[in-house]
Amino acid sequence: MSQRRAVLAVGAFALTFAVLAVTALVIERIEPVAPSAPPAPAASKQRLFACAVPQGADADYCGRVVQDLNQRAEITDQTRADLSDEARTVDEVLNPRQACRAVQTTPGGPARQVCDRVLPDPAVLLARLDDAGFTGAVVRPAAAGDPAPAGSLFYAVPVRGACIIGAVTGLPDGVGSRVAGTLASGACA
Predict the structure, then answer these.
(1) Contacts of 74 (CB under 8 A, 6+ apart)
(2) Which domain of life is it from (predicted)?
(3) Contact of 73 with 181, CB cutoff 8 Å
């Protein structure tokens, strides 16, 4: 056997051995491991929540949303689905389309949308909700702990044992409504 063939044979053997060893390690990692502790009780069930930061929101916005969610009763996916049309209606009533204008800063250049930030009077928004059949709502300037961007209006609308909450930012593509459970007091805000 030539020296070159011997080196190739040893190399092939070493490569085969390495592949088998790595495969064995991967298989060992995939095998289920018996739990070392019993599963957590249902009361400490964790919820998964994604938070999209709206235009103009402060850095603590998502933290306040999560904190608020953890203070509310859980609702089922079915309840959330059953109230999705009402949530969309509340959003449309409180966040009408803004009139924006195209501004062209350079002649012949691209135009950009400019929208003025206009926060309506909370009393006007409450009247709109009443007219749409949503009574008992709260609309107020966002307080420090509210799940709303700083400088916006927070709203909470009770609907069939749950709450539709959100914020009016006065900017296009605002926060939007979401269906949530009630607070421990049974109220929405």
Answers:
(1) 45, 47, 181
(2) Bacteria
(3) yes
